[in-house]
Design a protein that fits this description.
With about 230 residues, this protein is an alpha/beta fold. The protein has six helices and 14 strands. It binds nickel (II) ion and manganese (II) ion.
Length: about 230
């Protein structure tokens, strides 16, 4: 069974697996690097890592238009419900649930999570998704490196999506350390080149990944997809 990841720009990803579309951290209409508009994206599920605008801006409008179920921290689900999102699935750190697209577990992330209007978004999170065919995919969300990443990699991780932009999240140096802890087969960079403050040379980063870790880097441009079996 083929699964694919499409980078829509910044930290917005579309995972397609088992015929299901899972949209991660939708930030499109206000995103200078977005490859499409919020009104054009399809989703069965919307997965949110934390409450910042560059991860949640288009979640309510996309969920309302598509009827997608939003999966997020409890506090974010409450906030989206109050904004007209009909279907939410609240979770929190350490918890896992079997969804039609795989088993999703919530992990820690070292960051913050205030919602755009100042409401409390709970704890920021990352996700480990075990796909139907058994491969594990790690979405780190916005975070610095943390030693528990070693524990996340105890069971093999096939694909890791890590921020490399620096300033708000880990940068290239810390991402190399993270890859050494997680030991994924494939790593895709995220959360960079949206604005000058998080500009990074992804080609140079990929060279470092090849030389300093055992992972294979896959660098996409916004709108590009990568698929695996
Ligand atoms: Ni953030
Ligand atoms: Mn962010």
């Amino acid at each position: 069974m083929t699964s694919s990841l499409t980078w829509l720009g910044h930290a917005t990803w579309l995972l397609e697996t088992a015929g299901i579309k899972v949209l991660i951290d939708p930030f499109l209409d206000g995103n200078p690097a977005a490859s499409q508009k919020a009104g054009d994206v399809a989703a069965d599920f919307v997965l949110i890592t934390h409450g910042h605008g560059d991860h949640i801006a288009d979640a309510a409008s996309i969920a309302s238009r598509t009827g997608a179920t939003v999966i997020a921290a409890f506090e974010i689900c409450e906030w989206l419900s109050a904004r007209g999102v009909a279907k939410t699935h609240p979770m929190n750190i350490g918890g896992a649930f079997q969804f039609p697209f795989g088993r999703l577990q919530v992990t820690i992330a070292h960051h913050s999570s205030m919602l755009p209007d100042g409401a409390n978004g709970g704890a920021p999170v990352g996700y480990i998704l075990t796909l139907t065919e058994g491969k594990r995919v790690y979405f780190a969300g916005d975070t610095g490196v943390f030693l528990d990443m070693q524990r996340l990699g105890r069971e093999p991780i096939a694909v890791a999506v890590l921020p490399i932009g620096d300033n708000f999240t880990m940068g290239p140096d810390e991402s190399i350390e993270a890859i050494q802890l997680i030991r994924p087969e494939i790593v895709l960079p995220s959360h960079y080149n949206t604005w000058p403050v998080i500009a990074q040379d992804a080609g140079r980063w990929a060279e470092r990944v090849r030389h300093e870790t055992a992972a294979r880097p896959v660098v996409l441009q916004p709108g590009e997809s990568w698929s695996w079996n």
